[in-house]
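Possible race condition, two jobs.
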Amino acid sequence: MLLKELRTAVLEANLELVRRGLVLYTFGNASGVDRAQGLVVIKPSGVEYDELRPEDMVVTDLNGKIVDGKLKPSSDLATHTLLYREFLEIGGVVHTHSEYATSFAQAGMAIPALGTTHADYFYGPVPCTEPLSDEAIGGDYVHETGLAIVARFRGTLEDAEEGRDEIDPMAVPACLVAGHAPFVWGSDVSDAAHNAVVLEAVARMAYRTLTLEAEAGVVTKALLDRHYFRKHGAKATYGQG
């Protein structure tokens, strides 16, 4: 079976989303990429999670052409493949409609870095895209969704004028798509699923914090740095090394 180990890892990541309560029914999808071969493995579309097997995972190239698999790939494939082409560091992508992160997406709001739990995983706010235009929605919608994410991370002249900088996709491995839901990524598909679980947790905490205190301030730069860099980068101290 082509890419047997990656197919198994992608299946396990999809099942982790179910175990953690991030998906309902057949919502959501996870994928992984084999950079050496230029191939992507992704969940098939609309298949019940408890029926999935590694051989059901669909293999495509980086442009979404099916290479191996008997089932149709996830309907979000074009977003996944665009993220792989544009952000070369990422090895896995997850899309869910998890309740709290999706609530921020539907509100068109970034998830602010209100505390150290957020700072441990996301080096600043988790951004939200601009709403897609009617033309984008009526056109190649799934591809346009990916373009909106990339545009939010790459930054534009308008972003610069509003004080919004280019964002490192590995320092903030998630984006909310306005009116839609989150896309999350990581160094591999397991890491992407892990980040999706944490994203939902910090979104839930942010929602509750803002409910208690609408004017709650974000963490200071010193506290953000202290917590993020203890887990990330060359001088990370968290864990057993």
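Job #2 (started ~2 s after job #1):
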Amino acid sequence: MGSQLWAPEEDCSTWTMPEDGSAHALKRALEHFTEITGHPEITTIPWCLWGHSGGAIWTMNMVHLYPERILAAFPRSGGLSPAGRTYSRSQPQSIRENPAAFKVPILFCYGAKEREPGNRFNALIEGVHQAFEAGREEGAPWALAVHPDAEHENAQSRQLALRFFDTLIPKRLPDPLSTSTDLVELEKENAWLGKQADLDIAPLSLDMASSSNSSYLAEESLAESWKAFTTHGNIQDKTPPPPPHELRVHKAGSQTELSWNAWADIESGIGHFAIYRKGKLLGHVGGPEHPATNPEAFFHAWNYHDQPLLEDPLTRMRFIDRTPPEPIQPEDYEVRTVNQAGLYSAPTQGLSSVGWETQQKTSWKSLSGENGLGLWQGSPKGGHPKGWLEKDGILEMDPNASEGSSSLYSKEVYGDFELTFQYRIGKGGNSEIKYRMTDYDGQFLGPEYQILDDEDHYPGYRPGIDTTPHYITATLYGLEMGDWSMDPRRPPGIWNQGRIVVRGPRIEH
């Protein structure tokens, strides 16, 4: 949830002290979400808090008030209060007044220019050091990262915050198989330290475990990100963005219109979309250029506070090909998402607008039938499927295909879905359907619905007698074994019908 605390006639002090009303406002908002969604866990799940400036002060005061609820916190340019500041209502407390706050992992962050003498934010940053140094002297798992070139603007702190939360969330959540709901306290073993003096990193040592001259960093990968940020002000994004989806191609007279949808790249946003026809680059779709806020004309732009520029609507995901007409197919077009780090997604191939509109007339989308192969690609990166035939509405492997046949990958990307399919497997066959696939360092993996000739796959198969668990048809490979007496499949050469239902975290085969 993204929140905005709004007081147009006053400064941040209207809401930075949570006990003056903003904490109640947050809790009431969560109760409202519970009421309208039917998810009671919303009111009890832990919080990751991430705030800038006044939002950082608010974040630290929430840590002081509700340490048992807070999984981790990232205050950018703010502590409990600016040094020496008083307010007209509630006053900031000493961080030592609630020792439970020292168990909450915190990564403080600010720009080096903010602490320069005479800078208008100097007192704010002194307040950061008052809190950080007190916590580290108590051995709190707290860290401090200073951007070497920035002032009060967020700069690239988003990159560090994301890696901080990605590291801490699995470490702090309780074991789902246990009955405890308490957040897990971080261990000293295997942790790392960042040294404030020379920005070097090293495994945690007992003599530095409670030193205000060091930052606690939960593991080596986070320590490396901390060092890159504090040294260069940037952390390299190495993860390509997700590919576009729902690429529709509509021919109108002498021109062709492309439209699509896309998900944001959480780390680096979308810089632009690259449009191709038959492998040749046709052009790009980005955003409006603005000298101050978007000089690179990125599709996504952020303001000083690292918020989207709400006053400028996003550019439409649309491209008009006005090049001379030639015989082309919808799948001759491809679109790639390019993030702001310059990394390209896998390509998404086009689907004719007629085919798209036909699909929208029913809640079901046919992935076979006429032009069935046109709905599939041969790899996560695109390309035509190899070694497949389309005959009488059936997709089948070509018995004469040479080595190098590919799997089939749907061009469309689905969230929750229900897939029904018919299959006929050969003697000794071993196949599967994978879904919700993710690229793990070059390996495209996901849950796997087994399709087997069970009897041939396991010699000595005796249905109804042998109760040894094995992977059999319709089981979830790697996680679920099947009961022979419940084997649902018909033998090789006879048609079977399968079904996969995926709704949120619930999966049915």
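The chain has a mean pLDDT of 87.
Logs attached separately.
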